[in-house]
Amino acid sequence: MKSTNQDLADKLWHFVDSYIESYQKVHGHLPVAELDEDWPSSCQQGLFTPQEKHGEQEQQILWQPVKADGNLCFNNIESALELELHPDIKNYFTVFHSDPLDALCQEGQLSLLFAWNENDFERLQENIIGHVLMKRKLKQRITVFFAITDEEDLILSLDNETGAVWVERVGCEPHKKLADSMAEFIAGLTPHIPA
Question: Model-level pTM?
Answer without folding.
Answer: 0.93
